[in-house]
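Reading is simple: the C-alpha coordinate line describes the chain's fold. The lines below illustrate.

. . .
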Amino acid sequence: MLAKVVKYFAGALVLSVAGSLFFNLPDSFSGLAAKRQTQAQAHYMMGLFYENQAKFDQAIVEYRETLTLEKDVSAAHLRLGLAFIRKGDFDKAAAELGEAKRLEPEALEPGLMLALLYTLQNSSDKAAREYEEVLKKASQIEPENTAILKSLAALYYQQKKLENAASTYKLILALDKKDYESFFLLGSLLLEEGKSGEAVEKFKEALKLNPDYADALNSLGYLYVEEGRNLDQAEELIKKALLSAPDNGAFIDSLGWVYYKKNQIDQAIEQLEKASSLLADAVIYDHLGDAYFKKGMSAKAAGSWEKSLGLNPELEKVKEKLNRLKKEIPANK
Protein backbone atom coordinates (compact mmCIF):
# COMPACT_ATOMS: atom_id res chain seq x y z
CA MET A 1 0.00 0.00 0.00
CA LEU A 2 1.20 3.52 -0.80
CA ALA A 3 1.24 5.60 2.37
CA LYS A 4 -0.08 9.17 2.50
CA VAL A 5 3.25 10.69 1.58
CA VAL A 6 2.95 14.42 0.89
CA LYS A 7 3.21 16.30 4.16
CA TYR A 8 1.86 19.74 4.97
CA PHE A 9 4.81 22.00 5.86
CA ALA A 10 3.01 25.33 6.24
CA GLY A 11 2.48 24.87 9.98
CA ALA A 12 6.21 25.36 10.56
CA LEU A 13 6.06 28.58 8.58
CA VAL A 14 3.13 29.76 10.73
CA LEU A 15 5.15 29.24 13.89
CA SER A 16 8.29 30.89 12.57
CA VAL A 17 6.52 33.99 11.29
CA ALA A 18 4.19 34.22 14.29
CA GLY A 19 7.19 34.12 16.60
CA SER A 20 8.74 37.08 14.80
CA LEU A 21 5.64 39.20 15.46
CA PHE A 22 6.19 39.61 19.19
CA PHE A 23 7.66 42.91 20.38
CA ASN A 24 8.35 44.27 16.90
CA LEU A 25 7.75 48.01 16.77
CA PRO A 26 6.00 48.86 13.49
CA ASP A 27 7.57 51.27 11.02
CA SER A 28 4.20 53.02 10.68
CA PHE A 29 4.94 55.12 13.75
CA SER A 30 7.73 56.98 11.99
CA GLY A 31 5.28 59.05 9.98
CA LEU A 32 3.38 60.46 12.98
CA ALA A 33 3.80 63.84 14.61
CA ALA A 34 6.19 63.63 17.56
CA LYS A 35 3.63 63.79 20.39
CA ARG A 36 1.14 61.47 18.76
CA GLN A 37 4.00 59.15 17.84
CA THR A 38 5.07 58.88 21.47
CA GLN A 39 1.51 58.28 22.65
CA ALA A 40 0.79 55.72 19.92
CA GLN A 41 4.01 53.86 20.66
CA ALA A 42 3.21 53.84 24.36
CA HIS A 43 -0.25 52.35 23.81
CA TYR A 44 1.14 49.81 21.36
CA MET A 45 3.87 48.71 23.78
CA MET A 46 1.33 48.42 26.59
CA GLY A 47 -0.79 46.29 24.30
CA LEU A 48 2.17 43.99 23.71
CA PHE A 49 2.81 43.85 27.46
CA TYR A 50 -0.78 42.88 28.26
CA GLU A 51 -0.86 40.40 25.40
CA ASN A 52 2.27 38.72 26.70
CA GLN A 53 0.53 38.45 30.09
CA ALA A 54 -2.49 36.83 28.39
CA LYS A 55 -4.61 39.86 29.42
CA PHE A 56 -6.28 40.16 26.06
CA ASP A 57 -9.09 42.54 27.02
CA GLN A 58 -6.56 45.11 28.24
CA ALA A 59 -4.40 44.49 25.16
CA ILE A 60 -7.39 45.16 22.89
CA VAL A 61 -8.06 48.47 24.67
CA GLU A 62 -4.45 49.57 24.16
CA TYR A 63 -4.32 48.59 20.49
CA ARG A 64 -7.57 50.46 19.88
CA GLU A 65 -6.09 53.53 21.55
CA THR A 66 -3.15 53.21 19.15
CA LEU A 67 -5.53 53.17 16.21
CA THR A 68 -7.48 56.14 17.56
CA LEU A 69 -4.27 58.13 17.30
CA GLU A 70 -3.36 56.66 13.90
CA LYS A 71 -5.78 54.34 12.09
CA ASP A 72 -3.27 53.17 9.48
CA VAL A 73 -0.83 51.37 11.77
CA SER A 74 -1.11 47.93 10.20
CA ALA A 75 0.78 46.23 13.05
CA ALA A 76 -1.86 47.40 15.54
CA HIS A 77 -4.63 45.92 13.37
CA LEU A 78 -2.59 42.72 13.19
CA ARG A 79 -2.13 42.53 16.97
CA LEU A 80 -5.83 43.25 17.47
CA GLY A 81 -6.65 40.41 15.14
CA LEU A 82 -4.44 38.02 17.06
CA ALA A 83 -5.94 39.12 20.39
CA PHE A 84 -9.44 38.48 19.04
CA ILE A 85 -8.36 35.03 17.83
CA ARG A 86 -7.19 34.22 21.35
CA LYS A 87 -10.52 35.39 22.73
CA GLY A 88 -12.40 33.29 20.18
CA ASP A 89 -14.01 36.30 18.46
CA PHE A 90 -13.22 35.19 14.93
CA ASP A 91 -15.40 37.71 13.06
CA LYS A 92 -13.64 40.69 14.64
CA ALA A 93 -10.30 38.96 14.16
CA ALA A 94 -10.95 38.51 10.42
CA ALA A 95 -11.90 42.19 10.05
CA GLU A 96 -8.73 43.41 11.77
CA LEU A 97 -6.45 41.01 9.90
CA GLY A 98 -8.07 41.97 6.61
CA GLU A 99 -7.38 45.64 7.37
CA ALA A 100 -3.75 44.84 8.21
CA LYS A 101 -3.44 43.01 4.91
CA ARG A 102 -5.00 45.94 3.00
CA LEU A 103 -2.61 48.44 4.58
CA GLU A 104 0.48 46.31 3.97
CA PRO A 105 -0.26 44.05 0.98
CA GLU A 106 3.33 42.82 0.64
CA ALA A 107 3.61 41.66 4.26
CA LEU A 108 3.39 37.95 5.01
CA GLU A 109 2.02 38.08 8.54
CA PRO A 110 -1.60 39.25 7.95
CA GLY A 111 -2.30 36.59 5.32
CA LEU A 112 -0.59 33.93 7.42
CA MET A 113 -2.71 34.76 10.44
CA LEU A 114 -5.86 34.85 8.29
CA ALA A 115 -4.96 31.36 7.08
CA LEU A 116 -4.57 30.26 10.69
CA LEU A 117 -7.94 31.81 11.54
CA TYR A 118 -9.69 30.08 8.64
CA THR A 119 -8.07 26.81 9.70
CA LEU A 120 -9.52 27.24 13.18
CA GLN A 121 -12.92 27.85 11.58
CA ASN A 122 -12.56 24.72 9.40
CA SER A 123 -12.78 26.91 6.29
CA SER A 124 -10.18 24.87 4.42
CA ASP A 125 -10.64 26.51 1.00
CA LYS A 126 -10.18 30.03 2.39
CA ALA A 127 -7.20 28.88 4.46
CA ALA A 128 -5.59 27.25 1.43
CA ARG A 129 -6.00 30.43 -0.65
CA GLU A 130 -4.34 32.53 2.05
CA TYR A 131 -1.51 30.03 2.54
CA GLU A 132 -0.89 29.90 -1.20
CA GLU A 133 -0.71 33.69 -1.44
CA VAL A 134 1.65 33.89 1.54
CA LEU A 135 3.92 31.14 0.26
CA LYS A 136 4.12 32.73 -3.19
CA LYS A 137 5.14 36.03 -1.61
CA ALA A 138 7.66 34.26 0.62
CA SER A 139 9.17 32.38 -2.34
CA GLN A 140 9.60 35.70 -4.19
CA ILE A 141 11.36 37.21 -1.17
CA GLU A 142 13.60 34.14 -0.76
CA PRO A 143 13.56 32.36 -4.14
CA GLU A 144 16.15 29.79 -3.06
CA ASN A 145 14.55 28.87 0.26
CA THR A 146 13.61 25.23 -0.34
CA ALA A 147 11.65 24.97 2.93
CA ILE A 148 9.22 27.63 1.67
CA LEU A 149 9.02 25.93 -1.73
CA LYS A 150 8.27 22.60 -0.05
CA SER A 151 5.41 24.23 1.83
CA LEU A 152 4.06 25.60 -1.44
CA ALA A 153 4.40 22.24 -3.21
CA ALA A 154 2.62 20.46 -0.35
CA LEU A 155 -0.18 23.01 -0.45
CA TYR A 156 -0.59 22.52 -4.20
CA TYR A 157 -0.87 18.80 -3.52
CA GLN A 158 -3.59 19.40 -0.94
CA GLN A 159 -5.44 21.50 -3.49
CA LYS A 160 -5.05 18.70 -6.09
CA LYS A 161 -3.00 21.04 -8.29
CA LEU A 162 -0.66 18.18 -9.15
CA GLU A 163 1.08 19.87 -12.10
CA ASN A 164 1.87 22.93 -9.97
CA ALA A 165 3.14 20.70 -7.16
CA ALA A 166 5.32 18.70 -9.54
CA SER A 167 6.83 21.82 -11.14
CA THR A 168 7.61 23.21 -7.67
CA TYR A 169 9.40 20.00 -6.65
CA LYS A 170 11.39 20.20 -9.92
CA LEU A 171 12.40 23.73 -8.97
CA ILE A 172 13.50 22.50 -5.52
CA LEU A 173 15.62 19.79 -7.15
CA ALA A 174 17.19 22.33 -9.49
CA LEU A 175 18.31 24.19 -6.36
CA ASP A 176 19.31 21.10 -4.39
CA LYS A 177 20.10 17.93 -6.36
CA LYS A 178 20.63 15.96 -3.13
CA ASP A 179 17.14 16.50 -1.70
CA TYR A 180 16.06 12.85 -1.62
CA GLU A 181 12.71 13.68 -0.02
CA SER A 182 11.76 15.90 -2.97
CA PHE A 183 12.76 13.17 -5.44
CA PHE A 184 10.44 10.82 -3.59
CA LEU A 185 7.56 13.30 -3.36
CA LEU A 186 7.90 14.15 -7.04
CA GLY A 187 7.78 10.44 -7.81
CA SER A 188 4.62 10.07 -5.75
CA LEU A 189 2.97 12.91 -7.69
CA LEU A 190 4.01 11.42 -11.02
CA LEU A 191 2.50 8.11 -9.92
CA GLU A 192 -0.81 9.84 -9.15
CA GLU A 193 -0.72 11.29 -12.66
CA GLY A 194 -0.33 7.77 -14.07
CA LYS A 195 3.33 8.23 -15.03
CA SER A 196 4.61 5.09 -13.35
CA GLY A 197 7.81 4.85 -15.41
CA GLU A 198 8.91 8.34 -14.38
CA ALA A 199 7.85 7.63 -10.80
CA VAL A 200 10.12 4.57 -10.65
CA GLU A 201 13.09 6.69 -11.74
CA LYS A 202 12.41 9.31 -9.06
CA PHE A 203 12.08 6.65 -6.34
CA LYS A 204 15.39 5.18 -7.49
CA GLU A 205 17.03 8.64 -7.37
CA ALA A 206 15.78 9.06 -3.79
CA LEU A 207 17.23 5.67 -2.83
CA LYS A 208 20.59 6.46 -4.44
CA LEU A 209 20.83 9.44 -2.12
CA ASN A 210 19.40 7.62 0.92
CA PRO A 211 19.35 3.81 0.54
CA ASP A 212 17.48 3.41 3.85
CA TYR A 213 14.65 5.84 3.06
CA ALA A 214 11.68 3.72 4.12
CA ASP A 215 8.94 5.58 2.24
CA ALA A 216 10.80 5.26 -1.06
CA LEU A 217 11.64 1.60 -0.41
CA ASN A 218 7.99 0.78 0.24
CA SER A 219 6.65 2.86 -2.64
CA LEU A 220 9.03 1.36 -5.21
CA GLY A 221 8.33 -2.14 -3.93
CA TYR A 222 4.57 -1.64 -3.94
CA LEU A 223 4.68 -0.19 -7.44
CA TYR A 224 6.48 -3.30 -8.67
CA VAL A 225 3.85 -5.47 -6.97
CA GLU A 226 0.99 -3.56 -8.57
CA GLU A 227 2.62 -3.98 -11.96
CA GLY A 228 3.24 -7.69 -11.30
CA ARG A 229 6.99 -7.55 -11.89
CA ASN A 230 10.24 -7.82 -9.92
CA LEU A 231 8.32 -9.50 -7.09
CA ASP A 232 11.43 -10.87 -5.34
CA GLN A 233 13.06 -7.44 -5.48
CA ALA A 234 9.80 -5.85 -4.28
CA GLU A 235 9.77 -8.20 -1.27
CA GLU A 236 13.35 -7.22 -0.42
CA LEU A 237 12.58 -3.51 -0.71
CA ILE A 238 9.48 -3.70 1.48
CA LYS A 239 11.19 -5.86 4.12
CA LYS A 240 14.01 -3.31 4.26
CA ALA A 241 11.45 -0.52 4.77
CA LEU A 242 9.94 -2.53 7.63
CA LEU A 243 13.31 -2.71 9.40
CA SER A 244 12.96 0.99 10.25
CA ALA A 245 9.16 0.99 10.67
CA PRO A 246 8.07 -2.49 11.82
CA ASP A 247 4.59 -1.37 12.88
CA ASN A 248 3.75 0.66 9.80
CA GLY A 249 0.40 -0.69 8.62
CA ALA A 250 0.88 0.54 5.04
CA PHE A 251 4.26 -1.21 4.75
CA ILE A 252 2.88 -4.46 6.25
CA ASP A 253 0.03 -4.33 3.74
CA SER A 254 2.62 -4.05 0.96
CA LEU A 255 4.36 -7.16 2.24
CA GLY A 256 1.07 -9.03 2.44
CA TRP A 257 0.26 -7.98 -1.10
CA VAL A 258 3.63 -9.30 -2.32
CA TYR A 259 2.82 -12.66 -0.76
CA TYR A 260 -0.62 -12.61 -2.40
CA LYS A 261 0.91 -11.92 -5.83
CA LYS A 262 3.41 -14.75 -5.23
CA ASN A 263 0.51 -17.06 -4.35
CA GLN A 264 1.72 -17.47 -0.76
CA ILE A 265 -1.80 -16.99 0.57
CA ASP A 266 -1.35 -18.07 4.19
CA GLN A 267 1.53 -15.62 4.60
CA ALA A 268 -0.48 -12.95 2.81
CA ILE A 269 -3.44 -13.37 5.18
CA GLU A 270 -1.15 -13.25 8.20
CA GLN A 271 0.41 -9.95 7.13
CA LEU A 272 -2.83 -8.38 5.88
CA GLU A 273 -4.65 -9.22 9.11
CA LYS A 274 -1.79 -7.61 11.02
CA ALA A 275 -1.96 -4.53 8.77
CA SER A 276 -5.72 -4.18 9.28
CA SER A 277 -5.25 -4.36 13.06
CA LEU A 278 -2.83 -1.43 12.87
CA LEU A 279 -4.52 0.74 10.26
CA ALA A 280 -8.19 0.99 9.26
CA ASP A 281 -7.84 1.54 5.52
CA ALA A 282 -10.07 0.66 2.58
CA VAL A 283 -7.18 -0.66 0.47
CA ILE A 284 -5.97 -2.97 3.23
CA TYR A 285 -9.44 -4.46 3.71
CA ASP A 286 -9.77 -4.88 -0.06
CA HIS A 287 -6.47 -6.79 -0.18
CA LEU A 288 -7.47 -8.90 2.81
CA GLY A 289 -10.79 -9.71 1.14
CA ASP A 290 -8.95 -10.87 -1.98
CA ALA A 291 -6.70 -13.12 0.11
CA TYR A 292 -9.63 -14.62 2.03
CA PHE A 293 -11.48 -15.23 -1.24
CA LYS A 294 -8.50 -16.97 -2.83
CA LYS A 295 -8.27 -19.19 0.28
CA GLY A 296 -11.94 -20.10 -0.12
CA MET A 297 -13.05 -18.16 2.97
CA SER A 298 -16.05 -16.50 1.30
CA ALA A 299 -17.79 -15.17 4.41
CA LYS A 300 -14.60 -13.51 5.66
CA ALA A 301 -13.93 -12.11 2.20
CA ALA A 302 -17.40 -10.54 2.10
CA GLY A 303 -16.93 -9.06 5.57
CA SER A 304 -13.57 -7.56 4.64
CA TRP A 305 -14.88 -6.02 1.41
CA GLU A 306 -17.83 -4.57 3.32
CA LYS A 307 -15.38 -2.91 5.72
CA SER A 308 -13.48 -1.57 2.71
CA LEU A 309 -16.64 0.01 1.29
CA GLY A 310 -17.57 1.35 4.70
CA LEU A 311 -14.36 3.38 4.63
CA ASN A 312 -14.58 4.32 0.95
CA PRO A 313 -17.96 3.74 -0.76
CA GLU A 314 -16.55 4.89 -4.11
CA LEU A 315 -14.45 1.77 -4.73
CA GLU A 316 -16.33 0.34 -7.72
CA LYS A 317 -14.13 -2.74 -8.14
CA VAL A 318 -14.74 -3.73 -4.54
CA LYS A 319 -18.49 -3.30 -5.06
CA GLU A 320 -18.33 -5.57 -8.10
CA LYS A 321 -16.40 -8.28 -6.24
CA LEU A 322 -18.79 -8.16 -3.29
CA ASN A 323 -21.89 -8.29 -5.49
CA ARG A 324 -20.54 -11.26 -7.46
CA LEU A 325 -19.69 -13.10 -4.25
CA LYS A 326 -23.14 -12.52 -2.75
CA LYS A 327 -24.74 -14.00 -5.88
CA GLU A 328 -22.46 -17.05 -5.72
CA ILE A 329 -22.80 -17.82 -2.00
CA PRO A 330 -26.36 -19.32 -2.19
CA ALA A 331 -25.29 -21.56 -5.08
CA ASN A 332 -22.40 -22.88 -3.01
CA LYS A 333 -24.60 -23.89 -0.08
In short: The chain has a mean pLDDT of 88. The first helix runs from residue 10 to 21. The two ends are 34 Å apart (CA to CA). DSSP finds 18 helices and no strands in the chain.
